[in-house]
Amino acid sequence: MDIEKRLLAGDKRAAARLISLLENKDQEALAILKRLYPKSGNAYVIGITGPPGAGKSTLTDKLTKALRKEGKTVGIIAVDPTSPFTGGAILGDRVRMNELSTDPGVFIRSMGARGHLGGISEATASAIKVLDIYGLDYIFVETVGVGQSEVDIVKNCDTTLMVMVPGLGDDIQAIKAGVMEIGDVFAVNKSDRDGAKRTAREIDMMLDYNKDALWRPPVKMVVASENQGVDELIKALHEHRDFMKSSDNFIKRRAQNAKNEVVELIKERIERTILDQSKREERLEHAAERIAKREIDPFSVVDDVVGKMNL
Q1: Neighbours of 234 (CB within 10 A)
Q2: End-to-end distance of the chain based on CA atoms, in angstroms?
Q3: Total of domains in the chain
Q4: Which of 16, 110, 160, 193 is most buried (CB neighbours < 10 A)?
Q5: Does the keyword section mention Chaperone (predicted)?
Q6: Is residue 253 assigned to a domain?
Q7: How do residues 95-147 score in pLDDT, each as one tens digit?
Q8: pLDDT in tens, 222-237
Q9: Which residue range forms the structural domain that includes residue 290?
Q10: Which residues in 269-299 are b (16+ Cβ under 10 Å) and which e?
């Protein structure tokens, strides 16, 4: 049985294999994804983001277990920092979620960010589609936690959960950086620590500034390690899902996500076209040296390259 039929039959290994092939930009795998694309769109995709050390992995673990008790199937895409030695993902999340890895209703995939500034692997959008076609009810996408460029997560998800934590000293910085704007639901994790209520108040104050918003993001206090507040957090996530689906906001967000994905794919295709051939890369290196020496300007180089591509 080929990988396409195996995927549709609910074969976990086929899903894992197809994701690996797509990470490596395999054209046959891409053709499979194109054919099966109409079968996607059923899973609810939740992005989990926040600063490093906020306990995102522990919270993802607890949310998954709670949803499994409801009989739901769950996929977890953990976007890890890329290993400087192997270029692959550092599988810390999978180690921490060891208990879940034996659950047939849970699919865990660690992906290397590979230097992608948005905190999201370039192949994440494809992996989401594969797990969607595979037949999961929920897909969590957990990011590295890289600051303002984390807003890329919004381009892949239906609901974004922002996890904050007291005592890191960067709560206000995150608020000022504008990262706060991407959250649909906020969780103050490790809320048994000093300063948790102050952190929640600061988030609420910032949210008060956006008085025109149709949805007021709830702020939930959670201690993920003790499983405290997890059920209330799931309820808040469901409330946002229901709010989105009760209006045209749901299809609007997915349409915006699709638009962003198309733009990113076009950029990637153009970049690959420019750099693929070694001669082109040599010419670009030579042009870069001339730019550095002020012998030519970068705008003229771009005009030349784009002109030759007939864009």
Answers
A1: 17
A2: 42
A3: 3
A4: 160
A5: yes
A6: no
A7: 555 677 788 899 999 887 554 444 455 688 899 999 999 999 999 998 866 55
A8: 999 999 999 999 999 9
A9: 263-308
A10: eeeeebeeeeeeeeeeeebeeeeeeeeeeee
